[in-house]
Design a protein that fits this description.
- There is one protein chain.
- The chain is built from 9 helices and 14 strands.
- With 268 residues, it is of the alpha+beta class.
- The chain has one domain.
- A hairpin with a 7-residue loop joins strand 13 and strand 14.
Length: 268
């Protein structure tokens, strides 16, 4: 399949390797969500007209104002990016803070949608040796309500293979938990606390079973998972009812993605 004029959304469905447009990582030591955006994609995002429906919908609900993705701003949030030849890298701490949290979520939503409808030729990724591992389709903040904060998307075949290989070490009936990923979610959910009781930690899980890999956080069976034995590598959200839960689960996914990038292994 030729990729030049096909969108990321079409190509990922056919499990085509895609050059990096953006990446999500999480640093435990600094409790930072790390968002890496290809410079060409950033230019495309900054050039969006204010009357574009996706920006109008956000402005109607949130009233955030000016939009830009560049060295000094990520969407609606002024910040100083790290800059190299290929990417802008943004690091956000205290992302449980409501104003910051909502601005990050809305900016991510636009980032995800524009990537989905763009082709690699339009974005011109500058690091073809690094492939896209997460291709998310939805991360929307609206009115508080049941299931209104779902996270949709797919993972790459390489990411799928990584988690599948982890699952192969499991004995029948066993579950593998990944403490580093759970710590990332805790860092977001309890961003203004330093000490946590066992009962507070218990509600955060990153679990690996022979057929499912997923994350859960406090809520009414609030989780995000995907079926390892499936064929399309689809993320499946369940009862994500608030932006707080949404960003908590995204932090877990970002940390797992970092483990994938580092090809980290875990023991039972």
């Amino acid at each position: 399949m030729q990729t030049e004029d096909k969108s990321y959304g079409i190509l990922v469905y056919h499990q085509q390797p895609l050059p990096l447009a953006y990446d999500l990582l999480f640093d435990i030591d600094s409790k930072s969500l790390i968002i890496v955006v290809n410079k060409k994609l950033a230019e495309r995002l900054t050039a969006l007209e204010p009357q574009m429906p996706i920006l109008q919908a956000i402005e109607k609900v949130c009233k955030f104002g000016a939009w830009s993705v560049d060295e000094h701003s990520f969407g609606y949030l002024p910040t100083q990016a790290e800059v190299d030849n290929f990417n802008f890298t943004y690091r956000f701490t205290d992302i449980g803070n409501q104003d910051k949290r909502l601005k990050i979520i809305c900016a991510l939503h636009v980032l995800f949608i524009i990537t989905i409808i763009s082709s690699p030729a339009e974005i011109q990724p500058a690091q073809p040796s690094i492939n896209q591992s997460l291709l998310l389709e939805n991360c929307w903040y609206g009115e508080h309500g049941l299931g209104e904060f779902a996270i949709g998307g797919q993972i790459s075949q390489e990411f799928f293979d990584y988690t599948n290989n982890l699952a192969r070490v499991l004995k029948p009936g066993y579950i593998l938990q990944l403490p580093e990923v759970e710590e990332a979610m805790i860092a977001v959910y309890y961003f203004n606390k330093k000490d946590f009781s066992h009962s507070e930690r218990y509600n955060f899980k990153c679990y690996l079973r022979p057929d499912t890999f997923g994350f859960s956080c406090p809520g009414n069976a609030c989780d995000l998972d995907y079926n390892i034995s499936g064929s399309k590598n689809r993320l499946s959200p369940h009862n994500i009812d608030s932006s707080f839960q949404q960003l908590t689960l995204l932090a877990g996914l970002a940390k797992l993605n970092q483990c994938f990038r580092e090809q980290k292994t875990f023991t039972q």
